[in-house]
């Protein structure tokens, strides 16, 4: 095992991977427990703990010596259960026992051998052979540009295919579900690779439509591992492709999950056949990936056996030191669509005019277009202005893959001021109806009211006893409703901070709040992790109606302006529009593939923008469900979306550390700002100011130009 801790730690509550220095899980906001090290402790009179080796998905791993076998070194994995609830403990113990049972019956040179297993009231223990070596992650970090030699990666790819074949051909198949460099150990004695950390491995269950729990490491985990489809052996193949891409390119997929730049652009030594194979492995649709690990190995072997493979010849005629061949870029935009471009050159509208202006900007050269992934292929001979008028803008938005290339087109979003006062994540934001004040909620259990012009704190509400997740102003601006992870909702006066009432009917955290946007209305909607939406009187606490249409947590709520139609969205990947009084559902929108995290109505109530874990913001018609555009400017979960007061622009934020402003009718960012994992965004209802709240406990006010 590695002698150092890895660069991420896992939440015992939901399994999400977090930075090593994180104190709270980004996904479920559960506090993260520190690794427990107890040097010198002797377990069951036999295993003396020496020091910590690392932290995995289900516990902490120690180096230990076996006092019964001549001080033979072993690895002891401990699941610490003291901080878990009864339900969480049952789930964790089941997963831990599953790891023990899986390893106990598996025999393969690419898998660790289990030696012992037992459980105690506060902890469970698993003893395995100690593997002296280091992880591929540690090896990769020592290499210049984090790029490994082709010959070495091919050998590792073959070894990983062999162990995946063994797992996937068990009856029923075993899916590892967490293949990444940090979970692959290279043994020092013989260079053999071994998979470590089987805490989230599972059996494939034919006929099951989706997994019951979300597990995996962002960047390496397949899209279906986010809970809406069942993981299959092809999920491990996706992770294998992400791992191989990372080792050959030096790019960490955790920075831009689900987006892999063409491999030969990053490393010209990679043979075309290998680049095609890896691109197929990381296809979002499981059916588009190779059918099995055996098939992947079959395609790898000719590359391994190819003489001089380590020399990496991009093309037979290419001289030494030459740039990669341009045709490597061409597949990003097939030649076919350009035929239609010529036939439609007479069309004209504002969007086309903006595209034409874009082409006329200095510095937008063909080289820049190629850098953005817009290889013209067989259409190179077409006039560039025709390409730009008809297709350039959409393709630019779809093909942007890095901040460096995006900066060619996108202006920086001016930061006006930073509001400091919270000491934990800012989780939610809400402007007062007149735009004079801004409210922010935080995991520090407080709600703060700010003067957005000067960044001064006007008031702090201390009524909550746990993390505050949601806030909303009443239509008249007199009251604020705030909700927390303990399921408690407070309604209090914004001017004085005096409480009006408390409401507790949800089972678990309350994740969203929304006052009805009508004069003299006291109707309040609340949603929670229990999957329910409550409609109730925010001034009396009387429950009016409970909506039960969602499967899974409800993440977002929004009222149609001037109407009693409510839109709700959540982990079932749907947005549902329904009548608040009767619960009659008007529309079920299924455009997103994964959890819908945020939504907002346009000011005129004619359009909805919804953001999701699939990294997109979708703009669509709430009456017909017809998609009007998909914004693909983000590269990680979209955490917030908000319309400008006039409805022409949309602001969105994401875990990709960006705040972006873009036209609601054009797939092109106008301005982009940098913020550390922004959790929430809100556009002032009366001005051009945009507020964001992030994991650095900051509230930032932006001034779009």
Automatic annotation (TrEMBL):
Example of a GO MF term:
ATP binding
Keywords recorded for this protein, A-Z: ATP-binding, Nucleotide-binding, Repeat, WD repeat
Compositional bias annotation for Low complexity: 314-328
The protein's matches in Gene3D superfamilies, at most eight in alphabetical order, are given as: Phosphorylase Kinase, domain 1, Transferase(Phosphotransferase) domain 1, YVTN repeat-like/Quinoprotein amine dehydrogenase
Q: Which residues form the Protein kinase domain?
A: 47-304
| TM spans (from-to) | none
SUPFAM superfamilies, alphabetized: Protein kinase-like (PK-like), WD40 repeat-like
**Annotated binding of ATP, by residue:** 77
Region Disordered: list its residue ranges. Answer: 306-334
Q: Where does each WD repeat begin and end?
A: 419-460, 461-502, 503-546, 547-588, 589-630, 631-662, 671-705
InterPro entries per UniProt: Kinase-like_dom_sf, Prot_kinase_dom, Protein_kinase_ATP_BS, WD40/YVTN_repeat-like_dom_sf, WD40_PAC1, WD40_repeat_CS, WD40_repeat_dom_sf, WD40_rpt
**PROSITE patterns, alphabetically?**
PROTEIN_KINASE_ATP, PROTEIN_KINASE_DOM, WD_REPEATS_1, WD_REPEATS_2, WD_REPEATS_REGION
Pfam families on file: Pkinase, WD40
Q: Give the protein's recorded name.
A: Protein kinase domain-containing protein
Organism in which the protein naturally occurs: Thermogemmatispora tikiterensis
């Amino acid at each position: 095992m590695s002698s150092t801790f890895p660069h991420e730690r896992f939440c015992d509550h939901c399994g999400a991977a977090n930075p090593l220095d994180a104190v709270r899980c980004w996904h479920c906001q559960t506090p993260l427990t520190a690794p427990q090290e107890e040097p010198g402790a002797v377990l069951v009179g036999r295993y003396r703990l020496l020091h910590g080796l690392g932290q995995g998905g289900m516990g902490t791993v120690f180096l230990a010596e076996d006092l019964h076998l001549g001080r033979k070194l072993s690895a002891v994995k401990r699941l610490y259960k003291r901080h878990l609830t009864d339900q969480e403990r049952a789930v964790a113990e089941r997963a831990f026992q599953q790891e023990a049972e899986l390893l106990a019956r598996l025999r393969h040179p690419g898998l660790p051998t289990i030696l012992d297993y037992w459980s105690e009231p506060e902890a469970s223990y698993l003893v395995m052979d100690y593997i002296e070596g280091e992880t591929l992650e540690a090896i990769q970090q020592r290499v210049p540009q984090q790029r490994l030699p082709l010959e070495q990666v091919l050998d590792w790819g073959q070894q990983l295919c062999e162990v995946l074949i063994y797992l996937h051909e068990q009856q029923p198949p075993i899916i590892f579900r967490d293949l990444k460099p940090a979970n692959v150990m290279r043994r020092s004695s013989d260079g053999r690779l071994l998979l470590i950390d089987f805490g989230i491995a599972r059996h494939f269950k034919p006929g099951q439509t989706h997994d019951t729990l979300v597990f995996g490491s962002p960047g390496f985990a397949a899209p279906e591992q986010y809970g809406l489809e069942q993981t299959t052996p092809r999920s491990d193949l996706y992770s294998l492709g992400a791992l191989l891409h990372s080792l050959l390119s030096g790019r960490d997929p955790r920075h831009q999950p689900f987006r892999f730049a063409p491999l030969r652009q990053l490393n010209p030594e990679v043979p075309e056949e290998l680049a095609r194979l890896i691109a197929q492995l990381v296809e979002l649709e499981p059916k588009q990936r190779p059918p099995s690990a055996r098939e992947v190995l079959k395609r790898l072997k000719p590359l391994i056996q190819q003489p001089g493979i380590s020399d990496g010849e991009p093309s037979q005629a290419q001289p030494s030191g030459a740039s990669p061949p341009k045709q490597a870029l061409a597949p990003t935009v097939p030649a076919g669509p350009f035929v239609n471009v010529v036939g439609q050159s007479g069309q004209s509208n504002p969007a086309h005019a903006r595209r034409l202006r874009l082409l006329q900007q200095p510095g937008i050269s063909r080289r820049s277009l190629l850098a953005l992934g817009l290889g013209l292929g067989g259409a190179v001979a077409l006039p560039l202005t025709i390409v730009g008028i008809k297709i350039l803008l959409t393709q630019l938005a779809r093909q942007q893959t890095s901040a460096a290339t995006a900066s060619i087109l996108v202006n920086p979003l001016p930061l006006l001021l930073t509001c400091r006062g919270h000491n934990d994540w800012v989780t939610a934001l809400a402007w007062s109806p007149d735009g004079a004040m801004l409210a922010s909620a935080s995991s520090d259990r407080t709600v703060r009211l700010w003067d957005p012009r000067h960044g001064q704190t006007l008031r702090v509400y201390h009524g909550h006893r746990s993390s505050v997740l949601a806030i909303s102003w009443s239509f008249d601006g007199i009251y604020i409703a705030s909700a927390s992870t303990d399921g408690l909702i407070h309604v209090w006066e914004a001017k004085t901070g005096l409480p009006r009432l408390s409401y507790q009917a949800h089972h678990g955290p309350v994740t969203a709040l929304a006052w009805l946007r009508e004069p003299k209305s006291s109707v309040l909607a609340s949603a929670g992790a229990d999957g329910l939406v409550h409609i109730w009187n925010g001034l009396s606490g009387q429950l009016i109606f409970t909506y039960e249409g969602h499967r899974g947590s409800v993440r977002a709520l929004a009222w149609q302006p001037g109407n009693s139609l409510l839109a709700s969205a959540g982990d079932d990947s749907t947005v549902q529009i329904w009548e608040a009084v009767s619960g009659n559902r008007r529309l079920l929108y299924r455009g997103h593939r994964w959890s819908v995290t945020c939504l907002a109505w346009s000011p005129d109530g004619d359009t909805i923008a919804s953001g999701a874990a699939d990294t997109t913001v979708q703009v669509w018609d709430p009456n017909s469900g017809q998609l009007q555009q998909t914004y693909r400017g983000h590269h990680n979960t979209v955490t917030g979306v908000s319309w400008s007061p006039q409805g022409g622009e949309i602001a969105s934020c994401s875990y990709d550390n960006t705040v972006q402003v873009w036209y609601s009718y054009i797939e092109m960012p106008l301005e982009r700002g940098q913020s550390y994992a922004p959790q929430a965004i809100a556009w002032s209802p009366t001005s051009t100011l945009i507020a964001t709240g992030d994991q650095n406990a900051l509230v930032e006010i932006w001034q779009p130009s």
